[in-house]
Amino acid sequence: MHVLIIGGGIIGLSLGRALLKAQVEVTILERSRAGRATSWAAAGMLAPSAELWFEEEDLYYFGKEALARWPAFAQALEEETGLSVDYRTEGTLVVADDRDSAEALQRVYRYQQELAVNVQWLEPEEALEVEPFLSHRIVGAVFSPEDHQVDNRRVVEALRLSFIQAGGTLLEDTPVREVRSLVPFPEVITESGERYRGDWVVIAAGVWSTHLEGIPPEYRVPLRPVKGQMLQLRQEAPFSLTHVVRGPRAYLAPKSDGRLLIGATTEEMGFDIRVTAGGLFALLEGSWEIVPGIYELPFDEAWAGLRPATRDHKPAVGASGLPGIVYATGHYRHGILHAPYTAELLTQYLLTEETSPWLERFSPCRFHSSEEA
Question: Which has the closest alpha carbon to 138: 315, 13, 21, 288?
Answer without folding.
Answer: 288
